[in-house]
């Protein structure tokens, strides 16, 4: 396949930034997939005098390594790095050539300090918007530490491996042949997984923050920016930087931005936050919060952060259906991301639990891949917009079941089906399936606040005043974790700004 003119024009700009000669070392045969990879590599090599192509024996066909001329490489791609993984390929070229990865120096030193040899393999689909974060993280580790190596495996070209390993969710990473992790993770989270968490001592010299923001989504970053602009000492603790927005593919309602995608938006937001003096602490999970003379936040590693005020921007997480089999078959047929995992269920029967907008959007997407899609809605009528209902009705391989309750998900080593109850007749029915996509909305990430003294409503949302204040003086909240009437990215950003201004007003009156 040939790269289009626009992609080639962009690529030429990046290739001009190469800092040394790069050799693409390929293991190819005469099969159709090898020919695709050969054509791709030859087209890339023809674009720069700094690139060359040579043969090398590798463990998979087709595959190739990205190496500096005359040196060994730990960065390998099995299959074609196109779709969302094209960026991973470009970054690999630049970083292997000697251009430093754009990460904090502290992170870089932690990676370089790893002494144990490790080899990672990450299985991806090219439509997965979460996979590049994991691929790029392990590639960075491989570039910075010669004891570490990593192979991206494109599941479409290596379906036999995917089936043999029973991989039903991407990204899935193996370490030295053993399953390590599945799902989206940041570099910080993956580093903690392979090298251990940061010690409590690493947080000992933080001092007292004027404002400590907990949460790295739209509300948290907005709050941090507004606080930092006031010239006060600001910290931001985030278990997953970017929050739930990272799971969103198409965003068409950001005013002034007709179209963007979640990861792209949050990358811009992170860059914006970093332009201010904000102490960003990634891959750190808050365990408890107490209001004493100061606000004290305990992290899961035992460290305690102190602040004069705090803003809880905790966001939300996928709502579980809480039936037998859901947890047991997670990543073995039960999934929450149709964009990521849909291609793994090509020509198979799947179910979507939930008849709201996200449920029907998922069903319509999956209908182009799966042999049949069943949509199960608990209520007598679908909740989705009429335009989505109309589109779904026109697709012959979508069956919509309303007024039904999922009883359990069944299988052996992976999902084989589910049982549901017709709520009108009370009769039980069975569906033979290979996959179940849960799309029933979100719940606030506030479980850990139940003993904090902070008022929550029946849905677990934090009750807030007009200025974002909670019932505890000095503690504010913003975004999808609050009792705001609507849950939208733009509303979360606004409420983050409101909470920061509320916290500043609180501080100057103390």
TrEMBL record:
Cofactor note: Binds 1 FAD per subunit.
GO molecular function annotations of the record: flavin adenine dinucleotide binding; NAD binding; NADH-dependent peroxiredoxin activity; oxidoreductase activity, acting on a sulfur group of donors, NAD(P) as acceptor
Gene3D superfamilies cross-referenced by the UniProt entry: 3.40.30.80, FAD/NAD(P)-binding domain (3.50.50.60)
Keywords, comma-separated and alphabetical: Disulfide bond, FAD, Flavoprotein, NAD, NADP, Oxidoreductase, Redox-active center
A Pfam cross-reference name: Pyr_redox_2
Residues covered by the FAD/NAD(P)-binding domain: 209-495
Any one of the GO CC terms: cytosol
GO biological process, one term: response to reactive oxygen species
Residues binding NAD(+): 349-363
Disulfide bond residue pairs: 337-340
Cofactor (UniProt): FAD
UniProt-listed InterPro entries: AhpF_NTD_C (IPR044141), AhpF_NTD_N (IPR044142), Alkyl_hydroperoxide_Rdtase_suF (IPR012081), FAD/NAD-bd_sf (IPR036188), FAD/NAD-binding_dom (IPR023753), Ferredoxin-NADP_redctase_2 (IPR050097), Pyr_nucl-diS_OxRdtase_2_AS (IPR008255), Thioredoxin-like_fold (IPR012336)
Domain Thioredoxin-like fold: 118-194
Oligomer status and interactors: Homodimer.
Family: Belongs to the class-II pyridine nucleotide-disulfide oxidoreductase family.
Name listed for the protein in its UniProt record: Alkyl hydroperoxide reductase subunit F
């Amino acid at each position: 396949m040939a790269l289009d003119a626009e992609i080639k024009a962009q690529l030429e700009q990046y290739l001009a930034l190469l800092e040394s000669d790069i050799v693409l070392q390929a293991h190819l045969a005469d099969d159709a997939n090898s020919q695709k990879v050969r054509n791709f590599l030859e087209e890339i090599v023809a674009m720069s005098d700094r690139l060359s192509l040579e043969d090398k024996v590798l463990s998979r066909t087709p595959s190739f390594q990205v190496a500096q001329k005359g040196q060994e490489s730990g960065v390998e791609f099995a299959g074609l790095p196109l779709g969302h993984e094209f960026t991973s390929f470009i970054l690999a070229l630049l970083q292997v050539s000697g251009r430093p990865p754009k990460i904090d120096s502290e992170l870089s030193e932690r990676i370089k300090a790893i002494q144990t040899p490790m080899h990672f393999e990450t299985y991806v689909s090219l439509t997965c918007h979460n996979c590049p974060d994991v691929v790029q993280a392990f590639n960075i580790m491989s570039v910075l530490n010669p004891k570490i190596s990593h192979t991206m495996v494109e599941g479409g070209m290596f379906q036999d491996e995917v089936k043999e390993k029973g991989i039903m969710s991407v990204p899935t990473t193996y370490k030295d042949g053993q399953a390590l992790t599945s799902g989206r993770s940041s570099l910080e989270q993956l580093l903690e997984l392979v090298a251990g968490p940061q010690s409590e001592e690493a947080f000992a010299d933080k001092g007292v923050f004027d404002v400590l923001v907990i949460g790295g989504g739209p509300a948290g970053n907005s709050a941090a920016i507004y606080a930092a602009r006031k010239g006060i000492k600001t910290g931001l603790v985030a278990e997953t930087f970017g929050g739930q927005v990272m799971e969103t593919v198409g965003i068409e309602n950001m005013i002034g931005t007709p179209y963007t995608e979640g990861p792209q938006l949050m990358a811009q937001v992170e860059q914006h936050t970093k332009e201010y003096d904000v102490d960003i602490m990634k891959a750190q999970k808050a365990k408890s919060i107490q209001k004493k003379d100061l606000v004290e936040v305990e992290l899961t590693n035992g460290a305690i952060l102190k602040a004069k005020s705090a803003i809880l921007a905790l966001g939300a997480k996928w709502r579980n259906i809480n039936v037998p089999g859901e947890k047991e078959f997670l990543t073995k047929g039960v999934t929450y991301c149709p964009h990521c995992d849909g291609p793994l269920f090509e020509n198979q029967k799947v179910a979507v639990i939930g008849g709201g907008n996200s449920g029907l959007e998922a069903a319509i997407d999956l209908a182009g891949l799966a042999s049949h899609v069943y949509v199960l809605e608990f209520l007598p009528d679908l909740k989705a917009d009429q335009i989505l209902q109309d589109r779904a009705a026109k697709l012959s391989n979508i069956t919509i079941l309303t007024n039904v309750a999922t009883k359990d998900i069944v299988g052996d080593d992976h999902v084989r089906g589910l049982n549901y109850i017709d709520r009108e007749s009370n009769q039980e029915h069975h569906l033979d399936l290979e996959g179940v996509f849960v799309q029933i909305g979100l719940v606030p990430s506030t479980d850990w606040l139940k003993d904090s003294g902070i008022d929550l409503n029946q849905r677990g949302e934090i009750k807030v005043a007009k200025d974002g204040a909670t019932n505890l003086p000095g503690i504010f909240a913003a975004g999808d974790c609050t009792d705001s009437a609507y849950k939208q990215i733009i509303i979360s950003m606004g409420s983050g700004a409101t909470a920061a201004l509320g916290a500043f007003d609180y501080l100057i009156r103390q």
